[in-house]
């Protein structure tokens, strides 16, 4: 086996290790945030939990793509971006429903779970940071992890504002903001995947 083959194998193993850790963290936090969000009637927590679900799905798809051909990795990234957009639209519908029918978010739940999710995603960012300029499926994972930190900080801030202002409006606003972040992240990943596909197609075929 050549030195090049060895380096590719080592990199693939490292990618798999990182993606498995990210998948596990996000799957656990999805369940925790969703259950707490339903109990606390918090659109911010529910939106963030579905963001965690989107991320877990993305990491699973990325894990599948590790070590495979470039085209497979591009398709994996594109699926990840499309999934993120679909989930963003679903959460947007839930926020509109709660805005119309009302909700009474519990700020202490929002703050506590928001802090836990923030710490979990800081760990995720640290794990994926060395791959942020790597292959397209790993860049997609970096975008998700980075956006999650911003979303988690927003949930904590919204919880504080709900407590101080005694209003559900901050919860609705941060839920909508998370939807925008998730939606834009999905679009960015689709653009990146499309650019990679164009570069791949432009490479001359020696056969």
Essential attributes:
207 residues, mainly alpha, 86% helix, disordered N terminus
The amount of helix comes to over 70%
Which band does the percent of strand residues land in?
Answer: under 5%
Give the CA-based shape: elongated
Mean pLDDT: 80
Poorly predicted runs are 1-8
Order of helices and strands: HHHHHH
- Output the radius of gyration: 18 Å
Number of domains: 1
Q: Terminal Cα separation, in Å?
A: 24 Å
- Strand runs, count: 0
Structural class: mainly alpha
Q: Total helix count?
A: 6
Major beta sheet summary: none
Descriptive account of the structure:
The protein is mostly helical. The chain has one domain. 86% of the residues lie in helices and 0% in strands. The chain has helices at residues 3-40, 43-65, 70-101, 107-128, 136-165, 169-202. Helix 1 (3-40) packs antiparallel against helix 4. The chain is elongated, with a radius of gyration of 18 Å. The two termini are 24 Å apart.
Task: Note the topology.
Layout lengths: L2 H38 L2 H23 L4 H32 L5 H22 L7 H30 L3 H34 L5
Could you write a compact summary of the structure shown?
This protein is mostly helical and 207 residues long.
